[in-house]
Batch of 2 targets.
Target 1
Amino acid sequence: MKTRSPRAPTRLPTKFRILNASERLFAERGYEGVSLRDIARDADVEVALVSYHFGAKQELFRHVIARRSAEHADRVLAALERERLEAPTGVPSLDRIIFAFCSGSFELARLPDAGWKHYLQLIARSAMSPVNTPALKPLNSAYGPVVRRYCEALRQAAPRLRDGDLYTAFYWIQSIVQRMVAETGILDRQSRGLCRSGDYESHLTRLVPFAAAGITALIPARTPRRKPTTAPPGIRSQ
Amino acid sequence: MKTRSPRAPTRLPTKFRILNASERLFAERGYEGVSLRDIARDADVEVALVSYHFGAKQELFRHVIARRSAEHADRVLAALERERLEAPTGVPSLDRIIFAFCSGSFELARLPDAGWKHYLQLIARSAMSPVNTPALKPLNSAYGPVVRRYCEALRQAAPRLRDGDLYTAFYWIQSIVQRMVAETGILDRQSRGLCRSGDYESHLTRLVPFAAAGITALIPARTPRRKPTTAPPGIRSQ
DNA sequence: GTCTATAATGAGATAGAC
DNA sequence: GTCTATCTCATTATAGAC
């Protein structure tokens, strides 16, 4: 009776089917919102095979993350390296650093393979959890270098930016990028259809000047000789 | 045997205990990550009482949202109204609009009553879900007016800003505010303790100039007679 | 309003035949 | 590698005594 797409000419190997289904469902409903039975049904596979191939549910989740995290991190880092090579001084401008960071993810989000989109939705969701979700530890080790290298680049591009401002601003850019690739549909609704979640060209051409100008506004004024009126020098933009 | 904090001098009514526990746990682990038993244990109440007072789990969730959403929305709207009254022209500047929007939530996040923090974490988490989580419908109706009024205010403050840029930029500010009040601890770790999630004074004094300059950078150049060199003039802050 | 008890379902995981 | 069958436990929800 229960034949699974009979005579499917090209049926992916079971492990792949399970990983793809897990990726999609975890992204949509979160780790606890998905049962192994949901995954097996979506993958058109017997329930027992999920445990057979991946062990416990948490291990399955780890595999879903591990399959793409290194490639994603490498890609975002490579985009920065490219900017370094193309910059005459070897120090890319704020614009270019932000461009590299955003496009590294945006390009994956709009690939025809929806798997990347699901993966990005999944990590965006995991990074919003205020408690240690099972995803956080592997994500931290995979993306730690990305954060470090980008913050170093920002430091070189804006040497007078304060440390706290630098880390916070980079965190905000992360927050924006993650929420864009999450494609929640909220932007579409709030703009009454004028903006579309999947329009990454528009997002990129807006986000680069937005964030670059935002960071620039946080750079303190250069060596104020006269004592400032009330606030410490350059606390409010300019 | 199973006495619940015997002789507690002031024990909140059961309905409140259940709501508070639900709010906290839903925020930490998400809707599906929490069982009614978890909630009953945390509230120090019998499991059956949860169903008795609130019916099904989804109804309980709805009550958790409904308890605070109207007050939150009102507060954020009132902050904008205050700026309107204080502005000489009746049209607050970009800075002041952004200040009103952010401080309306930040002030609640740092109240001694941790309930507000949990509520804000909960809606931040819900707003990251790429699929219709049970929270989204009530949240949309509660916060729809907030989005509308703030976008109108931005439109007045920056009349030449394009519609798409306006909605997108406001969405980004929302994204930042929500991730800050979620207090995931990620910023703290990435900055190696230099920035603290709970330091809303710093967040506010950084976010206002950052976002105002970011939006300003998106305003098209005024009637450019000569073709701009590379970037449109006025791309950097105000 | 509160508690005990239980019904009904679904969960994760494993054993063993093929 | 795959499938059937099953174990054990936790889940939501309700019924009924107090």
Target 2
Amino acid sequence: MSLPHAILTALLEKPSSGLELTRRFDKSIGFFWSATHQQIYRELGRLEQSGLIRSCPQPPSRGQRKEYEVLPAGRTALADWIADPQDPKPVREPMVLRIRAAAAVGGRGLAEELGRHLELHVRQLAEYLEIERHDFPAERLAAGGERLALQHRVLRAGIGMEEYWVEWLRGTLAVLGD
Amino acid sequence: MSLPHAILTALLEKPSSGLELTRRFDKSIGFFWSATHQQIYRELGRLEQSGLIRSCPQPPSRGQRKEYEVLPAGRTALADWIADPQDPKPVREPMVLRIRAAAAVGGRGLAEELGRHLELHVRQLAEYLEIERHDFPAERLAAGGERLALQHRVLRAGIGMEEYWVEWLRGTLAVLGD
DNA sequence: AGCTACATGTAAAGGGTTACATGATTTT
DNA sequence: AAAATCATGTAACCCTTTACATGTAGCT
């Protein structure tokens, strides 16, 4: 049940049309919650039906831009969801699965894949660090309040995740390279 | 397309019935690829249909135990899958999403959730470290070959993941506790 | 008038989750 | 004989993914 709340958050940050939301999911929001435009349009319909958001008054026809904004009920629903107990989702890591399979049938061709993934994660890490340098310099963090600090924690989650993968992939490549 | 290959790997390690597989997915395999018994039975049927596994000769009736083993075609399919290029899946981290939502509408009640998750991850990390101490002592790792080293990398993935969460949750709690 | 980009949507297929159903075996 | 447990399976629902369809606006 995270997608509707991801959309509510995005709309609170800035009222948007479906396509604008899709673009933002491809960028910053997508760093920790991805979604396609089909998912987003469907969910926008449901959220409007439930009275959590509304589209601005003009009644647009099919190919027309439709801007949504969050209603008070939507803000309340989001605040409730934040504090709601939810267990961490069970893990599903295909790459780790491949290593276990390689332990069973041999790892021919796996090193290339590990190297390719390593490069992808190195690149993503560099992108995150660049954002951090640009948006969260030390003096701004010292001056800013909790809101800024939380936004920084979101970015830090991405940085830690990529560092984790980079280190793990390097270590695993070292084993295969023996 | 990971579940069938997870099952092939598990069956190569040891031929099993559906329920036995389910138990192993609840334990070691489930640390990085979870699956319910319904998924497993469905997939066993498909794998048998495709000629990648077979159930042992006795034709069992409904409530009867049915043991599966991997056929040569299944082993080949698994080896192919290991080297097949697959991009990392887009990330979906509900907890990070909640932090971003908290930055927008305030984090009331979130600290409890963060603390609860922290405890869960601390416990999981301790479990992994205990397995490492028991199954991968330094002298065994030095003597063992690539197979053992790869199995260790699988466990190391779990350890690194939990360490990452523990550190991130502690840092985020520190922000909220200000 | 045709082309391209923008914008919203529909359809179908597959995986995952939850709840339930049924047969066989063991225990009391 | 009844109950509990083991074991396999069905059904319905939701989410995600992929491919396709349709309408609008601006430009040449």
